[in-house]
Every structure is written in structure tokens, then in C-alpha cells.
Amino acid sequence: MTSVLVVDDVDLFRTGLAAALAREGFDVAGEADDAEAAISRAESLQPDLVLLDILMPGVSGLDAVGKIRAVSPDSHVVMLSASESEEDLLECIKAGARGYLVKDSPFDELARSLHSVASGGAAISGLMTGKLLDILSQLLRHQDFVAPRRPALTGREIEVLRHVAKGMTSKDIGHVLFISENTVKNHVRNILDKLGLHSRNEAVLYAIREHLIEL
User: Fold this and answer.
1) Sheet holding 27-32, edge to edge
2) Mean pLDDT of all residues in the chain?
């Protein structure tokens, strides 16, 4: 069962949310009404998730993210906020939060998001996801970013790899393909250089993983 620490300075909202999470099957390990209490309870409880309001009196939820992760490194922090600010979203991601959900999200969406984070994923409310993609798009255009492409192997290089995968030597491959042993070795060297690998076995595993060849 996924354990959750619920942190919000509004008592009615916090207790209601904790009760709803418990009905959904979460183990509500504790509650806190400010960031300092959240840090202390996260350290003692070591919950799977910390559901943390971003705007609270005193130390903000944003400032608490790093401190919670320091005292409870296995806890995933999910921000629950009324703020739809791009700046808050980016600062929370920068601090190490695994999720950013707005408070008017439907409860079933919130529950699914928390299950996703507990399973190693991340969660951002739909509206904030759109804003994040807009920011990322602007950033990539500004930096003239080019996505890395998979190295392209020639037909001959793939053919050589098929024979390498069968355990054949360079000499044997040369006989089959009617090329010299040195030419085979050059093909293998080019393959390794293109893929940034160090051995024939690594090249074969890569080719199988990328469905270039089949055993």
C-alpha cells in the first residue's frame, strides 16, 4: 500500500483530502499544516509520497521540496497548488518535485496521478502540461536544438552484423560475402565508430535491440 503524507495549511481541505485518499486505498501516514512540520514528519515517517501545498505561511512548499528530499530521499514529492504559474511549475520541477497538480483537479485524476508517481512515473495536470510544452518548445527553438538521430548503418554493414551474430570470423564472413578479410574488419570498425561501441558483441546486441537483425 502506498503511504502518503498530506500537507496543507487549510484544516478542512487537508483532512477531507486525507479521508478521500484513505478510501481510495492509500495509507495516509500522517498530516502536516506547514512546511516545517512536513519536513519533520517526512523524516520520521519516510512516506512513499508527500502531497505538498505550494503556498503556505512561513516556509513555502516550494522551499521545502529539497529539504524533504534530503531527509527522506525515497519519498516522491507531488505539489498540490492553486497556482497555475509557469514560474512555480518550473521551480518545483527544478527543486525535484515529481508532480504538479492543480487543486481543482477531479479527485479520480489526482488519485491516478499519485498511483503513477508511486510507480516511478511523474504527474502534471493537463493545463500545466500544455504550458510546460510551450516553454520547452520556445527553449528548443531558441537554442536551435536538433534531436539526436539513430546512427544509420549501411546495408552491407547490417549484413556483416548478421554474420557476426552467428559467431563467424572476419575471414569466414569475407568468404561468404566475396570480400577480403580486411574489408570485413573495416566494416566492423566503421560500425563500432558509428555506434560508439567497443566490441562486436555490443554491436550485435544493439542491432538486435533496434530490430536491425534477428537471431
Assistant:
1) 27-32, 3-7, 49-53, 76-81, 99-102, 123-124
2) 88
